[in-house]
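Minutes, methods subgroup
Present: GH (chair), OT, SY

1. OT presented the first of two proteins processed in the latest run. Sequence and structure tokens recorded below as shown on screen.
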Amino acid sequence: MVAGTIVVGGGTGFIGRAITRKLKEIGYDVLLISRQPSLNAISWNDLASEGLPKSCVAVINVAGQNVLDPTRRWTPGFQQNVYASRVHTTRLLAEEIKKMSKPPNVFGVISGVGFYKASETETYTEDSTGGNHDYFSQLCSSWEEASLLPDDVNVRRFIVRSGVVLGRSGGIISQIYWPFYFGLGGPIASGKQYMPWIHIEDIAGIFLHGIQTDSVKGILNGVSPQIITNYEFAKALSRAMWRPCLFPLPEFAINLAFGKERASMMTQGQKVLPKRTLESGYEFKYPDIESACAECAHSFVDPSTR
């Protein structure tokens, strides 16, 4: 039985695919929005001209150009793409929701822990301030503000500030798999920087929880409850893949490849806790880095190569 239609912006991406799979498993009909229309997806231009389907019960937006795309230089043009793919798409969805005579029940949007200032001492929760210290924090602020709806639009709204998402089919694991596989993996720079992280199953699970739980509203931190450093992540992934962890990636090389401003996403970090996420009743499937890395490495590592 179909439980209703849910619209997922960015539904063809890494996180969007995971959310879509979970929604379909429990009976929702899913309409995807992507840059290019296809058999199962409409384009953002289609949305602007035709609006949201009257049958939709929830709208989710996880769209966003990959900031750490190694094939793209950190130019003003690319920065504009990063901004527009997040802020403009979220604003368009909010505008289309406002036009509906019977709007969806819930509007869920992704954001990032880059909202919080990098720090070696501060521990942040959803109640912490931020959003105004650098390009990425200002991007998160604009992203979240774009989802605002008037008080007279009766739609429950929640925002998930995501950490680094770990999963087999995308994100950071897909980018660093081969160096680790060949025993060349290691921490980024000193490895001492904190690394807020979450498994792909849990970021998708939090969105599903937000859709289904009427009490969920406002900010949720989409991070594991376990605080780790980048070095601890590299060690856990190496162990899961039965490989050594010997070769740190020098900070100067990262700055050279990505540009210093963008590289700061990898060379700096912060301690972030999912206080409200846990209080809302969400239970993490992968609460520790060892189990998360073991799942990510499972399909890659042939036992005979150990």
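2. SY then presented the second protein from the same run.
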Amino acid sequence: MLTYTPQAERQQAVTPPQSEKPWFLLLLCVLWLLPGLVGHDPWKPAENQSVAVIARMLQGGDWGVPLLAGQPYLGFSPLYYWCAALLGKTLAWTGIALHDLARIVTGIWMALALWGVGLAGRELHGRRQGRVAVVLLVGSVGLLQWGHHASPAVLGLTAFSWQMYALALARRRPLHAGALLGATWLVLLLGATWGEALLAMACALVLPVFPAWRRSGYLAALLAAFVVSLPLGLLWPLYLQQHAPAVFADWLVSHSLGIYGGLGALRFFHQPGYLYSIAAWFAFPVLPIAGWALWQVRRNLGDSRWLLPLVQLLAVVAWLIFAGRPSDSQALLFLVPLAVLAAGGVDDLRRGAASSLFWFGTTTFAAIAVALWGCWLALMLGWPDGLAGQLRQLSPSYVPGMGIGTLFAVGLSVAWVRVLMGKRPFGRRAATSWACGLTLVWGLLVGLWQPWLDASKSYREVGQGLQEAVTGKTGCIELMQMGSAQQGGIAYFSGLDVRGPDAAGANACPLVLVQSGIADATRGKLLWQGARPGESQERFFLYRRP
């Protein structure tokens, strides 16, 4: 995997050469995947909401109706929350925090996504290229946050990875592919939105236009997929309709199609330039490598190994361009076809392009690593005074210290230097070096800086301070003028009966918690105020209503 192989030799190879190191790929995936899954409180943009929904389920809430601060939370179907709640219930005896268990669920789904991309790359381009597809996906900058974030967004990535494999497999084993395809659609119906499910189905239904999929076996695969997915995928909407008709109506009208709104409130073309504004960094380096691969085979794009990922890529691009409210989490779907396309062309990169990628990655990640180590040493030693003082001011509740994270950072740095001492940077070697560098930076950020970041990003002190302030008082608390992340963090860490402005009975709550810059005496008697450590803008004020 670490050496360059010309395309002709790659196609003729029957058995893997002895120089291959499959253990290296596994180690790279583990070192990329595990850091950041445990050891810190929920962070923005989506963890506070996810963990609050999961906690409400475990506290006796209706598992069929996701609730955030007493309000239906319908941005995603509940499969991710169910998985995390089941794991939390099963492993409650271990004492592992619920938010850590939720991220472990993300790690499991992320591992499945990497597996699916690898299988798709192998099926389309050959066995060794499947490994390259995994390396390229791991090296994608935009995946770094969402691949370690407690959010249902990872389910879409996983489903589209396996859909790519199922569609590639359909020409060879149609019934097996049909079952896999149905499972991916089921994940989208129960874990994402109808919008993503319809996008996936559209990608599959358009393929018979091309001769490679215009056969009876593929039609059998499609039929099997619908039989597997639709009956089970409709169970949750039917449950909502029967047990919470008002929530079902809200979901169907406003949320069922995800970034396109709902059937009764469609949203189109709100930010047509969004994808272009993030693609250069979000999909680096798979985007330029995939572009080069397509240019190299531009006369053979009808070949199924290029046609399938290209169809899915164009569908996802159109999906994001015409969307009503695109986001980074939805752009994850963009990475899957790019990784598979790039895997087929990475070995054909010109020497200059491969060397440029290698040296750009090496210098960039080396500079970032030196900066992370230097700032961390300044924080530990208290010198130089100016830098150390600024870092302490940004996270005033952080207590400097060393632990297993420091040892991990040292080991990872040494391992990265060892990787750089390998052979010359052709094709996959350059891609592997990039992925290793990104893994190094992520590992250093987690190993050295996670406690410092957590001390300023967590809502734990706000929630616990609010809990102490209402000791001995009865009644619910209405949350006002705050976003869903703040509502989720306060609900999770306080454990109180807090209700968002749209929750039932919120207006009747005797207490109200307001996010504001300054206190407002017209709201009633001020009982408490608080904020996250180091936060000067986002403050919370608790009042008793007059």
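Chair's summary of item 2: The two ends are 70 Å apart (CA to CA).
Next meeting: continue with the remaining queue.
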